[in-house]
Design goal:
alpha/beta; 250 residues; seven-stranded parallel beta sheet; Rossmann fold; binds NADP nicotinamide-adenine-dinucleotide phosphate
């Protein structure tokens, strides 16, 4: 087991990529704090992990609110004694033409996708600095380094997150904390179920990858997270790990 007895917080753990990461971490021996806003969904993921012999508990929290993030981290430390790993994966995407976004939609995207990661880092770094050990893994996107139309706040938030990764790594690598991000390509999740159901769109997406696949599985994304969370990645700092079936290479 590569994460035996490590304590991991996974935000956005109730579905999609985050759920697969919770399950993979539990299989590797971690105690998993499943974080999202809807309590029942997080509890369902934690319940299934516990039923399968793993260890998990739901900690409902809106990552865009400082008071909620601070309380959630306190509760996880009270439950498990510490935190070794954060996978900051919660995120939203609103697709519109630039002139159609409301100020509220811009603020909501930036607050969840960018500010939330800053708040989580602020709450967790003191815990990790104290023991000179920690893994911060942010879920960015290829949209953070490659332009996509009709996703301006999303692209801006993910570009900012790639730079949060590098700036934090530069600041805290000396404290024994590895900071890295994963940039997924198109991954089949509830976020884009409506697009997976559209055969024309699937054909178009498949033409963008050298593998000819339209969608990566959530389990393949979880494999990247397990590697970055493990001690096999002890010398990896400030990496934007692109897991995109070769989309960006094309
Ligand atoms: N799927 C892709 O193709 C793809 C590609 C590139 C990057 N990504 C990134 O990967 C991450 C996960 O994507 P996904 O496709 O798995 O998305 P998803 O299926 O929509 O899941 C999003 C998760 O985030 C949680 N969440 C949303 N807002 C939150 C908030 N304010 N506080 C706490 N939790 C919140 C949701 O639960 P609640 O609603 O209950 O809070 C849910 O668990 C995102 O950051 C996304 O940008 C995805």
């Amino acid at each position: 087991m590569r994460l035996k007895d490590k304590v991991a917080i996974v935000t956005g753990g109730s579905q999609g990529i985050g759920k697969a990461i919770c399950e993979a971490f539990a299989r590797e021996g971690a105690k998993v704090a499943v974080v999202n806003r809807t309590a029942e969904k997080g509890e369902a993921v934690a319940g299934a992990i516990n039923a399968g012999g793993g260890a998990a508990k739901a900690f409902p929290c809106d990552v865009s609110k400082k008071s909620g993030v601070d309380a959630m981290v306190e509760n996880v430390v009270a439950e498990y004694g510490t935190v070794d790993i954060l996978v900051a994966n919660a995120g939203i995407m609103i697709n519109k033409k630039v002139e159609e976004y409301s100020e509220e939609e811009w603020d909501r995207t930036i607050d969840i996708n960018l500010k939330g990661n800053f708040l989580l880092s602020q709450a967790l770094i003191p815990v990790m600095k104290k023991k000179k050990y920690g893994k911060l893994i942010f879920m960015a996107s290829i949209a953070g380094t490659h332009a996509f139309p009709n996703a301006l706040p999303y692209c801006a938030s993910k570009g900012g997150l790639v730079m949060i990764t590098k700036a934090l790594a530069a600041e805290i690598a000396k404290d024994g904390i590895n900071v890295n991000c994963i940039s997924p390509g198109n991954t089949a999740t509830p976020l884009n179920q409506h697009l997976q159901d559209d055969p024309e769109f699937v054909k178009l997406m498949a033409s963008y990858t050298p593998t000819g696949r339209a969608y990566i599985s959530t389990e393949e994304m979880a494999g990247a997270a397990v590697f970055l969370a493990s001690d096999e990645a002890s010398a990896v700092h400030g990496l934007d790990m692109i897991v995109d079936d070769g989309w960006c290479a094309m």
